[in-house]
Design goal:
By secondary structure, this protein is of the alpha+beta class. The protein is built from 16 helices and 55 strands. The chain has a 9-stranded mixed beta sheet. Strands 3, 8, 10, 11 and 14 form a 5-stranded mixed beta sheet that branches. α7 packs across α8. The protein is flat.
């Protein structure tokens, strides 16, 4: 449902906690005290809204339809909890423990039937301005009954609440049953309910739906349907409610064995009109005493039996918990086919088109969150069954998507280990967590914080105590989740990877000897949806993943976490649009939530805060001469730091989990930020880099993994071939959505299916790609283009007078130095495939040719006496001293006495006026002599206007006129800039009225050059920083 709310965050304040739970009693305590003096027997319906904690604007659901009163399952629960918390006595009828609200619904949910729950309650609230009207007293922060001449003044008015909603907001199939079980229609006046009618938006108008009876509903089109409910009361009045549900086409199947030729071919965009077979398989081996089972969807391409099988094992599927109405769960053959629509024509001709070549056997786990071993044994039974009914000798192809790739690996290896012939020629692991999956620890902390919040409610007229959980259905605690997560946060908010470690150790022990847990009797290949270039997810380690800063009159924000933890099952009702229910107008003006939640990605370093969550709630009752009785409670305030030893997985390259699936098309309110995606399956996990035998570091997770040039042992991949993701339209941001297909990996997989394997390689487009070859040429050198392109165009863009070039048009170019030359050459390479698969790129490499070429700068320091400094420097563009490959220098006085270098091999301090300087690289030595006058051998200003002091310095440096009788010309443009010896600018210096000061306090020790620009003249001073 792409709908905004915050995973059931609020009810009461928490003044008691265990390691797992925060329990709230403060709101109930304050409210009970404030309303204690009232005679509860005078409240007609024993439900007083002013007393209750408001999850939502109860008065809005009064039986009339508005844009802000669309109801879904969470909203229905908020309405119920608001009414429940408003009870003034536990003796009221028509209520159940809120702990049982969801479980009752679950009990009545079955495959093929959409179960609708609802409620109808009468309740009371104070008359507006009851105190000023003399209807009730408010003394010492307590309400008291008002009597006038002994006559009780009635402050109460009556309201009605009616709401209904289906358990889910998305269903696959245009025909299904609808049922309203009487056990989940709640009311304190059941006797007033005459009938319920529903207009399903299919043109049939209102249809009476009796309690506990199935009504068949048919649609002819897909889309979002508005269901309108009419509650007819015995007094002749009617109340209305409404909800939304999205229906999509499903598949009509017949049992396997009913070999009836299909009358219509499979559509290129849909399989709804095709005859597809179904079959149930149960494992023959148990795990922990239980047998796994699956439902198969069998697309027999020619309706002539299974002859060329492709077995597709689905991934993690929480349908058994979140959508039991969907017989095949939340991942289905239809969703698989939809993912193939952008896979390219070659793959589509094999496994998608109506005349495709493969028979598809799609495996839906009956419990897609169960232990992986249990479902692996079920998959073994599927493979054995396919082999038993297969016509001919064609071997199987097994494609495992996400969790299904891990299960398929286990199953195939276990069959080999136990001597069973799986008759499989190719195993494809599609973005599978072969070393685990990642859900951000900060988000898990938030999830745990919310799910550990409990309400404690005590009736003022009884001893009943009820602790109500704020969120149920935690997929985070299912066996498969705990087995696959690289860092699982347990209910105590601690990292606990024992179950994961045990499973992956067991997995690696499966199979034949030295198999590493892989089948050896088939070819094993892998698809990763992580970027081939190793580019991260578009944000930095430590950046925010989500933040909520709200202080508004908002509805109860029960699903704000859905975009992130829908993957955990918190989005139990996902579909529709993220803002389907909306923000505005669902809380009365008297109630306000203040919410601050922040979850960050794991940063580098240690001890950094990655999660904090704070909630407070204020309820104002009606105003009394400018003020209002108020209940304010601080609900929770929790902070969590990053766990030790956890790498910043959230931002690494890998198949991404995209929150935009939930937020697209929604304008988020001010104060809410949700990161668009995070790394779900790191590339090294999907490729099983190092096979779990070596520890991976930060560099391993940022590495470019290229199928054509796979990494070598010990950090190699066990797969015979693999494909990572690349987007030629945006080469450096190409992490793709988890288990997605595209034309690149589609073509790659098609070639493998056709036993005509290719490798993928667009690495030359990566940002860090370089021309390889020497950076210094004495005679000649050969330069190599990165692999992967279909053409190579070499040119010289600087220094063409220094070298000759041969080999243009080939992957290797040779540069030959001309005699007695030196200087910088820029070699340019334009290469690529003209956009066929990767695109084109231009790379450059700067190369020094011949012996060093340099000049020098001379500085003296004031006040004298002090030694002067001379440093060699380069005035050749793109030919710095480092680029020239200078390995040694020698400074000598006129008598050949060596002068020791100062700070670096490029500088000396000396007293002699004339010195000789030599610099050497691999091509030889160049020597120059200074002129016997203080100054540069090369051009420098004839006049030095400024003096610099103190020099050396470690703090403030002053610039002043040397001689007041020798000034720059009037109106001259004067500026200064400080450089290091590498020519990097360190600071700008503003010179005003021929003087300035600047600080060198934060600079490293060394020699720096201050350049003062006076119109077209340059005055240079060396400054020593100590």
């Amino acid at each position: 449902m792409k709908k905004i709310s915050l995973l059931s965050l609020l009810f009461f304040v928490f003044n008691m906690a265990t390691a797992q739970q925060e329990i709230s009693t403060a709101y109930a305590t304050q409210a009970t005290n404030m309303f204690a003096p009232l005679d509860k027997n005078r409240i007609p319906h024993k439900v007083l809204l002013d007393y209750g904690f408001e999850y939502t604007n109860l008065k809005a659901f009064n039986g009339t339809l508005t844009d802000s009163t669309m109801v879904d399952a969470p909203t229905l629960k908020h309405i119920y909890n608001t009414i429940f918390s408003s009870r003034v006595t536990s003796a009221t009828t028509g209520f159940i423990n809120p702990n049982n609200f969801e479980s009752n619904w679950k009990t009545n949910r079955i495959a093929g039937t959409i179960t609708v729950s609802g409620l109808y309650y009468k309740y009371n609230a104070f008359i507006n301005d009851a105190i000023n009207l003399g209807k009730v007293n408010f003394v010492n922060n307590q309400f008291q009954d008002k009597f006038v001449s002994g006559v009780w003044q009635n402050p109460y008015q009556e309201f009605q609440a009616f709401a209904m909603a289906p358990a889910i907001t998305k269903y696959e199939g245009l025909s299904f049953k609808v049922k309203i079980p009487s056990a989940i229609f709640y009311s304190n006046y059941q006797s007033l309910v005459q009938s319920i009618q529903i207009d399903f938006g299919n043109g049939a108008g209102y249809v009476t739906v009796p309690f506990n009876q199935n009504v068949t509903i048919n649609y002819t089109t897909e889309g979002v349907k508005v269901w309108k409910y009419k509650l007819n009361l015995t007094n002749g009045t009617s109340l209305l409610s409404q909800s939304k549900i999205e229906v999509t086409q499903g598949i009509t199947t017949i049992p396997w064995g009913s070999f009836t030729p299909s009358t219509t071919a499979i559509s290129a965009t849909s399989v709804a009109s095709s005859t597809i077979y179904s079959h149930n398989i149960t494992a023959t081996k148990n795990y922990n005493g239980a047998f796994g089972s699956v439902k198969l969807t069998i697309d027999d391409t020619n309706n002539d039996g299974i002859r060329k099988p492709l077995i597709v094992a689905e991934g993690f599927d929480a349908g058994i918990i979140l959508a039991p109405e969907m017989a095949n769960g939340m991942n289905t053959y239809i969703s698989f086919r939809k993912s193939l629509q952008v896979s390219g024509t070659e793959l589509q001709s094999l496994i998608w088109n109506s005349n495709k070549q493969y028979d598809i056997i799609y495996v839906d786990w009956n419990n897609g969150v169960d232990f992986l071993q249990k479902n692996a044994f079920a998959l073994e039974a599927v493979i054995a069954w396919v082999n038993s009914v297969k016509i001919g000798t064609e071997k199987n192809v097994v494609l495992g998507q996400s969790m299904g790739g891990v299960i398929a690996r286990y199953a195939l290896a276990d069959m080999e280990q136990t001597g069973l012939d799986h008759k499989t020629r190719l195993f494809v692991s599609h973005d599978a967590p072969q070393q685990g999956a990642n859900i951000p620890v900060g988000v898990q902390y938030m999830f745990r914080h919310v799910t550990n919040l409990f309400n404690r409610y005590s009736s003022p007229f009884g001893t009943q105590v009820i602790d109500v959980p704020f969120l149920e259905n935690s997929i985070l605690d299912q066996p498969a989740t705990k087995q696959m997560l690289m860092n699982w946060v347990n209910p105590y908010s601690n990292i606990d990877n024992n179950l994961s470690s045990n499973f992956y150790n067991e997995l690696r022990s499966k199979g034949l000897v030295s198999s590493g847990g892989y089948p050896l009797n088939c070819r094993n290949i892998a698809i990763s949806n992580g970027a081939e270039c190793g580019i991260t997810q578009g944000f930095n380690a430590g950046d925010a993943l989500l933040s909520y800063h709200l202080s508004n009159k908002l509805p109860f924000l029960q699903n704000l976490l859905v975009p992130f933890v829908g993957i955990l099952g918190a989005g139990a009702y996902q579909s529709l649009s993220f803002g389907a229910i909306g923000f505005v107008g669902l809380l009365p003006g008297s109630s306000r939530y203040s919410i601050d939640f922040n979850a960050k990605s794991i940063p580098y370093g240690t001890g950094n805060e990655i999660y904090n969550g704070r909630i407070s709630y204020t309820k104002k009752l009606f105003k009394i001469f400018g003020w209002a009785p108020t209940i304010t409670v601080n609900i929770t305030n929790v902070q969590k730091n990053q766990p030790a030893g956890v790498l910043p997985l959230d931002h690494y390259a890998g198949g991404s989990y995209e929150t935009t699936f939930f937020t697209s098309g929604t304008i988020l309110p001010t104060g809410i930020y949700i990161r668009d995606k995070f790394n779900f399956i790191p590339t090294p996990s999907s490729l099983d880099i190092g096979k779990g035998d070596v520890s991976l570091n930060d560099a391993d997770y940022k590495m470019a993994y290229v199928g054509a040039t796979p990494p070598t042992a010990p950090k190699n991949s066990p797969f015979a071939n693999f494909s990572t993701d690349f987007d030629k339209s945006n080469p450096n941001a190409s992490n793709k959505m988890h288990i997605s297909f595209n034309s690149r990996n589609g073509e790659w997989l098609a070639k493998e299916l056709n036993v005509n394997a290719i490798t993928t390689n667009c690495s030359y487009m990566c940002a860090n790609t370089q021309i390889t070859g020497a950076s210094l040429i004495c005679t000649s050198a050969t330069y190599a283009a990165p692999s992967g392109g279909t053409f190579n165009n070499w040119t010289i863009t600087q220094g063409a007078n220094l070298v000759t070039l041969t080999g243009n048009g080939t992957p290797n170019a040779t540069l030959t130095a001309l005699p007695d030359v030196s200087g910088a050459v820029i070699l340019s390479l334009t290469m690529g495939d003209n956009g066929a698969k990767c695109g084109n790129v231009t790379l450059t490499k700067t190369i020094w040719v011949g012996k060093p070429q340099f000049t020098f700068e001379y500085s003296y320091f004031e006040p004298q006496p002090i030694k002067s400094t001379t440093c060699i420097t380069s005035n050749i563009p793109n030919g710095s001293l480092e680029q020239q490959g200078i390995t040694s220098t020698n400074f000598q006085e006129q008598d050949n006495t060596n002068i020791p270098t100062y700070y670096s091999i490029f500088c000396v301090r000396h007293e002699a006026e004339c010195i000789k300087i030599s610099a050497t690289n691999a091509c030889g030595t160049t020597t120059i002599e200074t002129e016997c006058s203080f100054g540069l051998k090369t051009a420098q200003p004839k006049t030095t206007f400024y003096t610099i002091y103190p020099n050396p310095s470690n703090n403030i440096v002053n610039i002043e006129i040397r001689d007041k009788n020798n000034l720059p010309e009037n109106g001259a443009t004067i500026s200064g800039e400080l450089f290091d010896m590498m020519g990097q600018s360190k600071t700008k210096v503003e010179i005003s009225n021929n003087q300035a000061t600047f600080s060198v306090r934060n600079l490293n020790k060394g020699i720096y050059v201050l350049k003062i620009y006076i119109n077209n003249q340059l005055e240079s001073h060396q400054i020593a920083v100590e």
